[in-house]
Prior knowledge:
- This protein is an alpha+beta fold.
- It folds into two domains: 77-399, Spore Coat Polysaccharide Biosynthesis Protein SpsA, Chain A (Alpha-Beta Complex); 410-526, Trefoil (Trefoil (Acidic Fibroblast Growth Factor, subunit A)).
- The protein has helices spanning 2-31, 39-46, 66-79, 83-88, 127-140, 163-169, 186-195, 217-225, 274-279, 302-307, 321-332, 358-371, 375-383, 389-399; strands at 32-33, 108-109, 116-122, 146-154, 175-180, 201-205, 209-211, 230-238, 245-246, 257-261, 267-271, 288-289, 297-301, 336-347, 410-416, 424-427, 435-438, 448-450, 456-458, 461-465, 471-475, 484-486, 492-494, 499-503, 509-513, 522-526.
- Strand 20 and strand 21 (471-475) form a beta hairpin.
- It is a single-pass type II membrane protein.
- Keywords: Disulfide bond, Glycosyltransferase, Golgi apparatus, Lectin, Manganese, Membrane, Transferase, Transmembrane, Transmembrane helix.
Amino acid sequence: MKLIWNYCYIVFLVVILSCLHNYFTWKEIVGNRRFGNDSNQRLQRMKVGPGELGQAVFLDLSLFSNEERRQYEKDQNKHGYNVFVSDLISFHRSLPHNTVYNGCTKSYDIFKLPPVSVIIPFRDESWSVLLRTVHSILDRTPSYLLREIILVDDGSKKGELKTKLDIYLSHLYNVRVIRNEEPKGLMVARQRGIDQTIADVIVVMDSHQEVAEVWLEPLLQQLKEKPRALVVPVVDGIDKDTFQYKKTDLDLKKKPFTFSFDWRLMQTVMPFKSEYLLSRENFEASPIRLPSIQGNIIVANKTIFQELGGLDTGMHVWGGEQIELAIKYITCGDGIYMIPCSHVAHLYRPVPWHAGNTRISNEYRVAEYTTGDVAERKMIRKKNKCKPFTHYLEVVKELIHFYVPDNLQASGTIKPALQNTSSFCLDASSLSSVTLLACHYQSGNQYWELSADFEIRHAVFCLAVDSANHLLIKECDFEKHSKWDYMSDNTIRHRISKLCLTIISETKVNLQQCVGSVYQQWIWKRLK
Length: 528
């Protein structure tokens, strides 16, 4: 009897030890994935074929028959990218392994991170581009973290995206499609997908993207630390003609720019403040606070996202929603963060979901419910005790060189002091050069501001000087060649060249040596 008990005891120990060994081996491989030491990365590098490792695919169109050429051009015009090349590339193609930056060597325990639901709206996307998006997620996301992928068909007409797609997806784990019988718009499609998710975290992304290795874990780590934040990866590019993977140059020492928007509510790029960038613990790898987002991929806590009103379904296409989300998460949440250690590539192409005047409508909605009145959106802000829009401006001004027209030194029309030209005003109607034209006193192209940063601004355009000391007008960029002083003797002097704005003829102005001449004196309303 004792022998039997000893035997059972030994068997029990062997089973326990075997289970522990398997568990820790599995956890080491799957749970603590490290950059540059991942078995999947090694397999990816061994692949061969068109587009592997994100390389470009070039075509010799002289080899095409007339019929093939017509179909090629038809698909190109319809989708805005090279469908022929896309169809040559594997759904499981490899991407470059060096997509991350120095300092991105942290391991992630996936069992302490929340699973996600991925929402991908589409309308008449090409078969290969759509499925490459899906498979890149399946191939490069730990199964523990991927609860589901929901494709939202916003009224596609292509037959292959109906039953054929349903059959194909039925063989994939946790991937399903929901459909709008008629087109409802991008925001409605996205929000419908969000409403049907089951995970605590949502990833909303476009249908023409490819994720890089270890794309998700850094995003979730930041969201775990700041649950009320909106997080985004570094968005790399996919060339629309060759499908080459193009890594974004995030050298913050040389090119510190980020997406923002101007007072026209138009998306633009603006320079970071070096003081903010240098204040971060790890210059290249630490999360970067953003004033706005591109909008092609966002990651958020679902509960918080819905409490803040979700997406504004009154916006039918892209354009404006990224501004709304930016203002909302900065005034009502923990802000927006870009994670340098996470990379997702986006296929940039001409505008899908044909916009017309809808984007203008979107931007008006943002302006109204942020500073005015769109009732249902304002109630959401009130319920969540959101801070005023001025808080957004204060935060953004800490991050980037964002122009706010306060503390102006001078404003209004700029008129010559010279008697026989006093009915003329400095005019920017050409938006390429400045001239003297008859004053119309209706502001517009004759309204100028001398900002607190010593820029002479007309809307988003600034007076600047080129390398040959020629006067020009260009989009403001906060660079030193756009700095001016309105002197006590009423001359307008360029800081770098030390030259003064001078009347050359009845309508022409340029820069000349400052001599205090009446041709260099200007009447401009001083505010300081």
